[in-house]
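User: Hi! I'm a student and our assignment asks us to look at how structure tokens line up with a sequence. Could you show me two examples?

Assistant: Happy to help. In each example below, the sequence comes first and the structure tokens follow. Example one:
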Amino acid sequence: MTAYAFVNLTITNPDSFEAYREKAGLALKKHGAAPLHVSKEAEVIEGGDAAPTVSVLLTFPDRAAAKAWIEDPEFAEVHALRRGSGFSNIILM
């Protein structure tokens, strides 16, 4: 069954984020994932947290593929670039 991951990124290091963007596609492709929607215009309409700089809705073939993507040791460096670019929050749905 298709799974979705909601990714919120608050970018504080644009250089690290750009390096991440250049490599992220390979990691996603390996695990059958694709961005369903990307927004730089997220807006909080309820709750007290600030809106992220970038929000992404990813689609995966299933939950196992999403977990394999985030845990793949081959792409640990790629995930480290994302984490080094600021604050990221990824929610599997």
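Example two works the same way, sequence first and then tokens:
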Amino acid sequence: MADVKQRRVIPGTPIFDGDAARKGYALNKMCFSFNSAANRAEFVKDEDAYCRKYGLNAEQSAAIARRNVLDLIAAGGNAYYLAKFAGIFGLDMQDIGAQQTGMTKEAFKAKLLEAGK
């Protein structure tokens, strides 16, 4: 039987599938830990140590240090877990959406409002 696994390609849109989930497991597990205030405080105290504690690879650790959501998604991050990371720095999903589209947050919000009309 031929391998029928096909990937849907949507230009500019990374698909979070099983491969991405496996790739980003440590990163997403770490971001999930940020549900706890104590864990958020531990991360802020020593980010590198916290990343090592969860076994992040070099690509993931570097993306964390840069606060770059697109790089985190490319490293296997899931937007829902990444929102927990972004929340530590007072960022919300509109900040993430703006970063993903290369827009300012204000322009992204305006685009959302216009689309909702």
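Here is something you could point out in your write-up. The mean pLDDT is 89.
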